Predict the 3D structure of the following.
Amino acid sequence: MKRCVFFLILLSAINAYPQDNYSRQRERMVETQIAQRGVTDERVLAAMKKIPRHKFVPIYLRGFAHRDSPLPIGYNQTISQPYIVGLMSQLLELRGNEKVLEIGTGSGYQAAVLSLLCREVYTIEILKPLADSARRRLEQLGYHNIEVKHGDGYLGWPQYAPFDAIIVTAAPDQIPPKLVEQLKEGGRMVLPVGKYFQTLKVVRKVKGQIKEENIIPVRFVPMIKSKNKVKPKKKKCPCSE
Ligand code: SAH
């Protein structure tokens, strides 16, 4: 019996150690890479200490999950650097009751962080395998206020518009007009814009007009232009007139 208890304790210690270790790595990541660089929103810092970032990177990269850099997630895409996730989340100025649209689901990590900061997250991913795996991952981890859609982010998600806030995590050349349309009056959009030289911008919609603020130079993967754009309506066949 004693032996049995001993093994049980030993087993749970072995199981608990890595978890504990990851949470310590997250604490350190948030303190040294995010808070010390000026992200002060306590809700953002707390969310990033909580979300298990190592579960959003490929298993063979788990040891690097808390590094101060983006990491590959397959299909030539990346999970953003922790500092950028923290900064963009703070720039959205979420208070807890918002409906937020994210373009570029990727691993689902940014969506998971947002899910702790607002009421509902709608996130769109253009690459089907990434959309499917992020949806599965977010479900398994129990984030129930996130909807993942496979589709083209340039078109937004009109069904759920308008959004209180929009975040774009791949870089378009220009601010996508459909996203501006789907932003609520008084809402904020945070996005990188540009080809080689990109700028992180905050776009606010005030009385129907947009006001842009440049934050910092950044480097994101480019936003992919869908090949199957909305097809133009077929002309009626003259013979059927
Ligand atoms: N937010 C992600 C990282 C984003 S990487 C995370 O937390 O892991 C950028 C993502 O945007 C990629 O997964 C890429 O496939 C996606 N993307 C690129 N162009 C897109 C488009 N037009 N519509 C939707 N998603 C797009």
